Amino acid sequence: MGRISGVTAADTRERLLRGAAEVFAERGYDGTRVADIAAAAGVSNGAMYAHFASKADLLVAALRAHGRRMLADAFAADPDRSVTDLLVLIGRWLPRRDDDANRYLLVEALVAARRDEDVARPMRDYVAERADWLADLVRVAQAGDEIDADLSPNALAHFCLLLAMGSALITPDLHTVADQEWAALLSRVVAGLAPAAGPEQTRSEPMKVQISSERCQGHGRCYDLAPDLFAEDDEGYGTVIGDGRVPPGQEDQARLAVANCPERAIDTSEA
What we know:
Helix content is 58%, strand content 6%. It is mainly alpha-helical. It folds into 2 domains: 9-176, Tetracycline Repressor, domain 2 (Orthogonal Bundle); 191-270, Alpha-Beta Plaits (2-Layer Sandwich), CATH 3.30.70.20. The chain has a two-stranded antiparallel ribbon. It is elongated and about 70 Å long.
C-alpha cells in the first residue's frame, strides 16, 4: 500500500494510534500482528515502522495518547476546576470503564509487560510519567491548601495509580456499586486529604452551611463532593440537606465543597 495523498505524517501517526487501540482491544496484544494494525489504520507495514519501532512501542504509545485525551477533555470542560475536584471527577469515572478503549489498552499492556521485556521497558516509563504528573498535581493542591502539606505527593500518586489500574481489572460485569455510594466514599477520601484544622478552627458548636440562591449557578460541585450535606433541586441548583447543620466528622467535606464552589455561593457559620 503506497502513501496516501494529502495525508501528513501526523495524520498517519494518529490513524495508527486509533487503529492499534481498536485491534488490541479486539484481539489482545499477543493476538495482534503488525499487519492487522496497519490494515486497520489504512497504511502499509512500512508506514507503521516509520513511526514506531515495534508493536510494543505502539501499544504503550496508544495507551499514552488515550490517557492524554481523557485528561484534556476534563480540563477543557472546566479550566478553573480545582485539583481535588479533578481527582473526584476522574475517580467517579473509574467504575464506569466497561466500554472504555483505554481500559482494554491498559489491561493488555499490564499483562504483556509481565512476560515481555519489550513491553515492560516502555510501560515503566509510562507509569513513571503518570506518577510524576500526579505527584506534581498533588504539590499544586498542597500549595493551594487543598491537600495537607504533610502528605507525601509520591505516596498519594502511587495510591491513585493503584486505584486507576485496579479499576481497569474490576469491570462492572464483575462487580459494581451504585454511583451515589461511590461518590460518597470518594468525597470522604478526598476530604480526609484536606489540611488538618488548627486549634483556632475548633468549634464548640456544630458548623452550619447555607447556599446563596443568588450566587449559585448550578455547577453541582457541592453535591458531587459532599453528597451527605448537599443535594440537587428540581432545577439543577445546589441545596443544603436538612437545616444545614454539619454532622460531626463531616466538617472537612463542607470545607471541600466551599473551596470548590466557583461562585463562592456556600457560606459557613456556627449554629
